[in-house]
Amino acid sequence: TLVKQLDTILCTLNDILNESSKLLWELRQDAAACLGLLCTVLSYEAERIFKWLFIKFTTGSRDEVKLLYLVAAQRALEAAGERKAFSHVMQLVMSNLQSILENVDTPELLCHSVKCILQVARCYPHVFSTNFRDTVDILVGWHIDHTQKHSLTQQVSGQWGFIICTKLVLVFKL
């Protein structure tokens, strides 16, 4: 039933995510979580859902809505977790997340895209390893940018440290 109605469900969730009322922020966050869980439940349709999600992110114009798409991706990746339910689409997901990371221009989008990448690094380290160098380069760039707030610099430092540790575990099989 969900697969038969998937286009309608995605359209409805997209309408909720794009609602402009600030009063509905919690509902919009719940809709993002719902989208992520839908992707996990329909893991055999994950490629279709992730492609839809990344197209919506790329064509979106409002950062707050883009943030919700990243929340949905993060929720899907977290819910699938160690089960490796997305093995068949992880390269697609990682490529899109890397592209997002390369193009974000706000600290909020940076942090959420990195959270998604960290989830990939935890559960699919072999997929992440091909993007390791580019990810670190981008995070170092944000870290050394003296115009950023100290709190963002600290957060990026912590994420950068985790990513380097992940890579060391991969390389040395610690």
UniProtKB/TrEMBL annotation:
Entry-linked SUPFAM superfamilies: ARM repeat
**Source organism, top-level taxon:** Eukaryota
Which InterPro entries would you find in this protein's record?
ARM-like, ARM-type_fold
Q: What is this protein called?
A: Serine/threonine-protein kinase SMG1-like
According to its UniProt entry, this protein's organism is Notothenia coriiceps (black rockcod)
